[in-house]
From TrEMBL:
This is Kanamycin kinase. Belongs to the aminoglycoside phosphotransferase family. Residues 27-251 form the Aminoglycoside phosphotransferase domain. NCBIfam families: APH_3p. It comes from the Bacteria.
């Protein structure tokens, strides 16, 4: 438990509520669970350079509210603030548990279907109505900024890149021709199993979380990360067969191998 709340508690919760620190994420956010019944989640981060692609509470809040207005099951934003030391966003807790948990073998297939349906639901949102842009030039700019600001988590890269420097990763990306952006959708931006919540009783979608990277991008930016996260899983019991099931459920009969490889490499910087 945390001895004292790291941010002001005003207009939400109770000053005497217990705080539990869940740790620091690779995105740069420190996450807390607040309340006897875990009523709220708080995500804090240090003040960041405007070009820093790591977690940004303002971006998270803007996107959560935009998605909520369109009927998607996302956490309600109850507070957003900053001081000289921290920035933060506070949300109400959603029910459910992440797809990245231990499910019974027979449940995993249904869980993957829910993840695929959540992706399709996001991707079916009207692109013209989305005010958030994450086109390829934006993503490449973020990648460059990650190098300049020392923001790349080199301890959280693909096994093929273990021991690489940020410059080696950049050199590899620079040798690749960027793919055409010919399939734009509203992408989650971090479509992994941790960010889709499932109702354990009904095995239906309970929520979509961690959306600060949401924006208009190529469909394969989301699909590449999801397929890697599912197919390369060595913790929760998923594997290549579940990746194939995801694609079938999503409705994508063929894999764009070039985009798949390009966006998986680009994600190392983001």
């Amino acid at each position: 438990m945390v001895a004292a709340a790291p941010i002001p508690v005003a207009g939400w919760g109770d000053r005497d509520d217990p705080w539990e620190c869940l740790g620091e994420r690779s995105s740069g956010a420190t996450v807390y669970r607040v309340g006897e019944k875990a009523s709220f989640y708080v995500k804090t981060t240090l003040p960041r350079h405007p070009d820093d692609p790591r977690f940004n509470p303002v971006k998270e809040a803007e996107r959560l509210r935009w998605l909520a207005d369109r009927g998607l099951p996302v956490p309600e934003v109850v507070a957003l603030g900053a001081n000289d030391d921290l920035q933060w966003v506070v949300t109400r807790t959603l029910p459910g548990r992440p797809a990245a948990r231990h499910w019974r073998p027979e449940e995993r297939w249904r869980v993957i279907e829910v993840v695929a349906d959540a992706a399709r639901r996001l991707h079916d949102l009207p692109v013209a109505e989305c005010p958030f842009e994450r086109r390829l030039p934006d993503l490449i700019h973020e990648a460059k900024s990650s190098i300049e600001l020392g923001a790349i988590d080199l301890a959280d890269v693909d096994t093929a890149h273990e021991g690489w420097t940020a410059q080696q990763l950049w050199d590899k990306l620079s040798r690749k021709v960027p793919p055409p952006e010919d399939d734009l959708v509203v992408c989650h931006g971090d479509l992994c199993l941790d960010n889709v919540l499932i109702d354990p009783d009904t095995l239906e979608l309970a929520g979509i979380i961690d959306v600060d990277r949401l924006g208009v991008s190529d469909r394969w930016f989301d699909l590449a990360l999801a397929l890697y996260n599912i197919g390369e899983d060595d913790v929760w019991g998923y594997g290549p067969a579940h990746s194939e099931h995801f694609l079938r459920r999503y409705g994508c009969p063929t894999v764009d191998e070039y985009k798949l490889a390009y966006f998986q490499l680009l994600d190392e910087f983001l």
